[in-house]
Amino acid sequence: MNIGEKAPEVLGMNEKGEEILLSNFQGKKVVLYFYPKDNTSGCTAEACSLRDNYPALKEKGYEVIGVSTDSAASHQKFIDKHELPFTLIADTDKKLVEAMGVWGEKSMCGKKYMGTFRTTFLLNEEGIVEKVFSPKEVKTKTHGEQILKVIE
To answer: Is 109 a catalytic residue?
Structure first.
């Protein structure tokens, strides 16, 4: 997914089993962030940075939506444990990660596997991609501040 393209209408099911549509956020800007796995060190740091900066992001007109391929139950535990004030999409069928181009081959310790590339998309009020933070650009511990610097 590139700058100028519209994100898919169906984002997927959240931690409560509710279908989340892009049109639910009509008139709001969206931080749509993709991360590999609930309760891992980098993903927890990123989620907590977004949590800590959530009031400032809301003030700027943004809603935050996290996405990983973990289950809704895993997401609910992650939200409860870290008091996350935003919804998480359980993309277990990998439709959204594939549509957004953030699913592919990764490698760790010489092993190759399929996974989610940590990527953040800033969407405007119409759901059009305005900014992309690539996996190399996302700084997990300060990602909330990183986004705020870009949107000011």
So the answer is: no
Decide: 47 and 84 in contact? Cβ < 8 Å: yes
Q: What percentage of the chain has pLDDT greater than the value 90?
A: 95
Catalytic-role residue among 13, 22, 43, 102: 43
Residues of the chain with pLDDT under 50: none
Q: Which long-range contacts (CB under 8 A, 24 or more apart) does 89-95 make?
A: 89/11, 89/12, 89/13, 89/14, 89/20, 89/65, 90/12, 90/13, 90/14, 90/15, 91/12, 91/67, 93/12, 94/69, 95/8, 95/10, 95/12
- Per-residue model confidence (pLDDT) at position 15: 97
State whether CATH 3.40.30.10 applies to domain 10-151: yes
pTM over 0.90: yes
